[in-house]
């Protein structure tokens, strides 16, 4: 059996494959998805073993995030937020806590809320808020993502806030190299005794990621600081593999549609045109998927 | 003609799904659910389509299930990495 025969058998409807490309047979498609999942497991294993080879690197500066945040506020006629060192320290502690206890949420698995970090650094507030982001490539993308989410946007454009604290921290979350951005907002209490109840605002909580608790070293990425670049990003490796696999399936389906129509092949099967539309839509969603998440 | 209506309904469902996918960009949990729902919707669309055309067979059910699962699993894996 030559290579040419194998290619025709795999991709062209022919009597050898019962007039349907072998790759479109359920058994072959099942094998493809199993191989894809095995690749994901291998990638996860390799991430734990060699984080310097497979990882994520970003160029986010805390000062730039604050600058862009204030630009967005200025566009709405709001006053700029002043950097408060206590708030930045609280943000730093929150990021460190997320890496130390391996979670991605506003509240820790043990129930620790963001407001406890405010209290730890001695920041007494009238209003407080928290925005989180992870795995973005640059400062502008982080703020843009927050602005595209109504709850985060409300925090960025809240006229009650007067001060801001920012932390950009690199570490390992769920076994993957991650850059966390913690943005804390606050308005300090004006009087020694405040009769008003403090207001606290979070973006809508989502279920936490990760299960195991793992202590990791926390690094602060200061502006302009260069971090070691990993050779490959797991996200991009997965994206390339996903586009490749769905592209092959899409190509085989398109060829099948043409040849079955030309040769007037009659067979019992699903609608190839429908498969084409569905796989094409999912391929488009994969292409549109960008790295980074907000919370 | 009825085939065209079926395909248009499928295209409309997928367009709405893709629109929601873009609206909820950066919200991975919702995007994962949108992808899973699109996969399930496609599977049921296939069954319904063949039942209406009166050419339904268990092999066809299996084919739609596999296509839906393969595409959805690959897309969800990527979203979990993003």
Short description:
The complex is a heterodimer of chains A (295) and B (82). Chain A is α/β, with parallel strands linked by helices and 295 residues long. Chain A has helices at 3-11, 26-49, 62-75, 85-100, 114-120, 139-147, 150-156, 234-262, 272-288; strands spanning 82-83, 125-134, 163-173, 176-188, 199-202, 219-220, 293-294.
Q: Overview of this structure, please?
A:
The complex is a heterodimer of chains A (295) and B (82). With 295 residues, chain A is α/β, with parallel strands linked by helices. Chain A contains 9 helices and 7 strands. In chain A, strands 1, 2, 3, 4, 5, 6 and 7 form a 7-stranded mixed sheet that branches. In chain A, a hairpin with a 2-residue loop joins β3 (163-173) and β4. In chain A, 37% of the residues are buried. Chain B is an all-alpha fold and 82 residues long. Chain B contains 3 helices and no strands. Chain B starts with a helix and ends with a helix. The model of chain B has no long low-confidence stretch (mean pLDDT 92). The chains are: A alpha/beta (295), B mainly alpha (82). Chains A and B meet through α2, α8, α9 and β7 of A and α1, α2 and α3 of B.
In whole angstroms, the N-to-C terminal distance of chain B is: 41 Å
What pattern of helices and strands is seen along the backbone of chain B?
Answer: HHH
Indicate the structural class of chain A.
alpha/beta
Report the biggest beta sheet of chain B as strand number plus sense, adding barrel if it closes.
none
Care to count the β-strands of chain A? Answer: 7
CA-based gyration radius of chain B: 14 Å
Question: Biggest interface in this structure?
Answer: A-B, 46 and 46 residues
- Nearest-integer average pLDDT of chain B: 92
Largest sheet of chain A: 7 strands, mixed
Instruction: Please give the count of helices of chain B.
Output: 3
Structural class of chain B: mainly alpha
What share of residues are in beta strands of chain B?
A: under 5%
Number of discrete helical segments of chain A = 9
Q: Over all CA atoms, what is the radius of gyration of chain A?
A: 25 Å
What string gives the helices and strands of chain A in order?
HHHEHHEHHEEEEHHE
Low-pLDDT runs of 5+ residues of chain A are: 204-229
């Amino acid at each position: 059996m030559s290579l040419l025969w194998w290619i025709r058998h795999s991709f062209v409807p022919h009597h050898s494959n019962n007039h349907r490309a072998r790759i479109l047979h359920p058994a072959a498609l099942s094998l493809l998805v199993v191989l894809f999942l095995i690749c994901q497991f291998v990638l996860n294993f390799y991430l734990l073993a060699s984080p310097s080879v497979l990882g994520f690197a970003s160029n986010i500066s805390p000062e730039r995030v604050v600058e862009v945040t204030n630009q967005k506020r200025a566009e709405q006629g709001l006053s700029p937020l002043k950097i408060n060192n206590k708030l930045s320290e609280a943000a730093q502690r929150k990021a460190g806590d997320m890496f130390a206890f391996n979670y991605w949420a506003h509240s820790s698995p043990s129930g620790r809320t963001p407001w406890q970090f405010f209290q730890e650094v001695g920041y007494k507030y009238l209003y407080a808020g928290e925005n989180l982001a992870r795995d973005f490539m640059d400062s502008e993308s982080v703020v843009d993502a927050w602005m595209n989410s109504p709850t985060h946007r409300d925090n960025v454009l809240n006229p009650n806030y007067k001060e801001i604290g920012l932390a950009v921290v690199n570490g390992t979350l769920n076994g993957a190299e991650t850059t966390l951005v913690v943005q804390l907002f606050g308005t300090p209490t004006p009087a020694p005794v405040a009769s008003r109840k403090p207001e606290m605002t979070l973006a809508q909580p989502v279920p936490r990621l990760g299960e195991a608790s793992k202590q990791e070293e926390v690094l602060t990425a200061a502006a302009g600081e260069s971090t070691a670049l990993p050779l490959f990003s797991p996200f991009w490796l997965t994206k390339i593999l996903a586009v490749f696999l769905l592209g092959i399936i899409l190509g085989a389906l398109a060829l099948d549609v043409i040849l079955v129509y030309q040769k007037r092949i009659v067979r019992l099967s699903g609608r190839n045109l429908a498969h084409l539309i569905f796989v094409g839509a999912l391929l488009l969603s994969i292409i549109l998927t960008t790295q980074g998440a907000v919370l | 003609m009825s085939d065209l209506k079926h395909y248009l309904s499928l295209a409309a469902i997928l367009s709405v799904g893709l629109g929601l996918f873009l609206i909820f960009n950066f919200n991975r949990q919702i995007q994962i659910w949108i992808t899973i729902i699109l996969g399930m919707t496609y599977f049921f669309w296939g069954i319904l389509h063949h039942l209406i055309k009166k050419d339904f067979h268990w092999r066809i059910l299996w084919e739609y299930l596999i296509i839906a699962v393969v595409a959805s699993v690959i897309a969800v894996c990527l979203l979990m990495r993003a």
